[in-house]
Amino acid sequence: MALAESQREPNMPPSLLDDISAALGVLPAHARESVAADALTATANFKWIPNPGPQTEGFFCAADETFYGGQAGGGKTDLGIGLAIAAHRRSLILRRINKDALKIVPRIEEILGTRTGYNGQLQRWKLSGRQIDIAGCEQESDKQRFKGDPHDLIVFDEGTDFLESQYRFIVGWNRSTEPGQRCRVLVTSNPPTTSEGLWVIRYWAPWLDSTHPKPAKPGELRWFTTINGEDTEVDGPGPHTIAGEKLPVTARSRTYLPASLADNPDLASTGYASVLAGLPEELRRAYRDGDFSVGLRDNRFQVIPTAWIVAAQSRWRPDGHKPFAMTAMGFDPAGGGSDSAELAWRHGGWYAPLISAKGEQTADGSASAATIIRYRRNNAPVIVDVGGGYGGAVTLRLKDNGIAHSGHNGAGATNARTRDGQLKFANKRAEAWWRFREELDPDQEGGSPIALPPDPELRADLAAPAYEVGPRGLLIESKDDIRKRLGRSPGKGDAVVMCLSQGNAAVRKQLQSATPMPATATRGFEHMKRKR
Is 508 exposed, middle or buried (0-12, 13-18, 19+ CB in 10 A)? Predict the structure, then answer.
């Protein structure tokens, strides 16, 4: 299998596989069969060898972090096992649920032909100087069990089942003290089928996000590092001089390698393709076709259907703001914590790409207010989330500068009801999120006016909350509960929602004031106002 130069391991003979592939290509059929038979004889004592094609590419790939998969049946789990057996001294193979992780044990036994060396209590194989740990990481907090435990190979099998916070934490111990031992991370997975797994599309955006401005080819290496708390693509491994860092930083490389059922001869001949063909449409496109743009299954009590969010993002155009002045802004502060502060604004129903900030600068109310003022146009009112206590300093600075603003406290009371009048809301958070749901409803008269930027994290945030109906009325899952479930705050979603629901009230207030907004600022808002 010919490999691009950027895909080879540094110590791999630079043209060995290319020479073999080229030589086989010119041989007559009977000669190729003879060579193949000789190769099988020569490798008879090998415990595992990769299949030709993507699995071989994945085995020799030089990336620090490789996402391997796409279609079901492409030999994903076997690649992780094969690397652990043949190329690494200390490996960790993870699945989200521990019972699922234990299903890997029989496959390793099948490959090795023995169970000798396996300790069931520790879930660990010992193999002639190699160690393979098998584990689950079910709860978000379970990631702490791997703290300080180094592995030169870490495999996240069915990677989209994991939370981004789990992944980022655990890969921090991808290291080795053995001279010459290569360290790498392998994520094997089909496309995500729940909103929690959408993080992989953002993490490997050059390959998986169809809206990425600089798309990458399969197997191409791209380098990333953290700048101001955010993932940033850089030009090459470096070292790079980053502002605020005392020492130059070396970037880590990522790539994506698609694999299909046809690439796995062990499974392709079993009739598995007909099984995939019989799946429901959305799962068929995810598992059989490896389509990363579809396949999400909604929670039964999900506030906003994913299909509505995707439709709103498909309506978005870069110049969609032109008919309208800026209508409102929404700001979700972070208070200097690990979450990002998020700034959203809209022109009628069109939302601009969000502005994110992270780190110590978000603890400074003046700095946050300055960011808001920098992007504010047309006297647009600003809505600040004050429920967590972080927004107070921001509202004070806005007041000092004469900026029209209002605080949004999700725990506050409301007398409002759903559009059909059937349900009351338990609090302002429930009202805000349900109003956004109502405006995204494609079956309303004239269709939905909302156009959202094609941001995978925003899509995940808006799809995250669930609802329930209790004695107090309709209640939306709290931000703290979502943070525990996702490992991060759904800040982008909250900013966008505030900007609409609370923003409409702010616009009405300005319309009634002595200094009204420009007329064009209310275009698009009137569409929503008529339905109240």
Answer: middle
Average pLDDT along the chain: 82
Domain 47-288 bears CATH identifier 3.10.450.350:
no
**Half-sphere exposure of residue 251: CA atoms within 13 angstroms, side-chain side:** 20
Token digits of residue 379: 């006297």
DSSP classification of residue 180: T
Please name the residue ranges forming H helices in 235-319. 265-268, 272-277, 281-283, 306-314
Question: Phi/psi of residue 187, each to 5°?
Answer: -110, 120
Contact 342, 388 (CB under 8 A): no
Beta bridge partners of 286: none
β partners of residue 174: 151
pLDDT at 57 over 80: yes
- Rounded Cα gap, residues 333 and 489, in angstroms: 11
Q: How far apart are CA 222 and CA 242, in angstroms?
A: 18
Query: Above 50 in pLDDT, residue 261?
Result: yes
**What are the tokens at 93?**
């193979």
Tell which residue, 495, 164, 165, 499, has the closest CA to residue 334: 495
Burial of residue 464 (CB within 10 Å: 0-12, 13-18, 19+) is buried
> Between 94 and 292, whose confidence is greater?
94
Instruction: Let me know: does 355 contact 493? Beta carbons within 8 Å.
Output: no
Domain locations along the chain: 1-37, 47-288, 306-529
**Distance (Å) of CA 12 to CA 17, 18, 59:** 9, 12, 11
The upper half-sphere exposure of residue 155, i.e. CA atoms within 13 Å in the direction of its Cβ, equals: 30
- Residue spans of alpha helices (H) in 354-444: 365-375, 392-400, 428-440
Picking from 382, 353, 378, 388, the residue whose alpha carbon sits closest to that of residue 370 is 382
> Which of the following CATH numbers is that of domain 306-529: 3.30.420.240, 3.40.50.12280, 3.30.70.330, 1.25.10.10?
3.30.420.240
Q: What pLDDT does 389 receive? A: 77
Residue 44 has pLDDT above 90, yes or no: no
User: Do the two domains 47-288 and 306-529 of this chain adopt the same fold?
Assistant: no
Is residue 364's pLDDT more than 90?
A: no
pTM confidence score: 0.64
Report the candidate in 497, 481, 501 with the shortest Cα–Cα distance to residue 489. Answer: 481
Calculate Rg over the CA atoms of the chain.
26
